[in-house]
Input
Amino acid sequence: MFDYHSQAIEKRISVYAQVPIENGEPIQILRYEKNQYYVPHNDYFTDTYNLKHGGQRIVTMLMYLSDNVEGGETYFPAGGSGESSCGGKIVKGLSVNPIKGNAVLFWSMGLNGESDPKSVHGACEVLSGEKWSAVKWMRQRAFL
Ligand code: PD2
Ligand code: ZN
Output
C-alpha cells in the first residue's frame, strides 16, 4: 500500500518542504521494538563523500506509520525551553508523539546554508508496542 501511494507522498513532501522532488533520497523505513531507541544526532553530513552526491541534507520529513506505541517520541533537546516526555522520562526540549498519519518536518540547515547544530534529535525508547516510521531526506541538489 505504501508503494502504491509513494509517488503522491513524494510529491506532497516536495510541495510542503518547497524542495524539488528530484532532490529527495529514497524513503527509508525504520522499525523499533520495545527498548529500542535512536541516540540524538544531526541528519546533516560531516563527511565529503556524501556531500559529493546531491550536496547536504537540508530538510527531513519524518512520518509515523504505527499507532499504539508507548514512548518512541522524536525528541529535539534544543527545541525550546520547555519540558517534555521522552521514553517515560521528563526531559528538557520538545518531543513529538509518534501518531500514525502524522509527520514532522525539520530543517538541518539555516537559510544561510550553514548546518544547524540545534536540529539535533533522537528517537526515545519504545516502552511498549512497535514503532514504524518512514523518513525522507531532501538534499541541496538532485540526488541521482
Ligand atoms: O524514527 C524516528 O523517530 C527518528 C528519530 C530521529 C528517525 C531519525 N532520527 C532518522 O531517521 O534520522
Ligand atoms: Zn535523524
User: Anything to note?
Assistant: The pocket of pyridine-2,4-dicarboxylic acid (ligand 1) is lined by residues 30, 38, 43, 62, 74, 121-123, 133, 135 (CB under 6 Å). The chain has a mean pLDDT of 95. The domain at 2-139 is CATH 2.60.120.620 (Jelly Rolls).
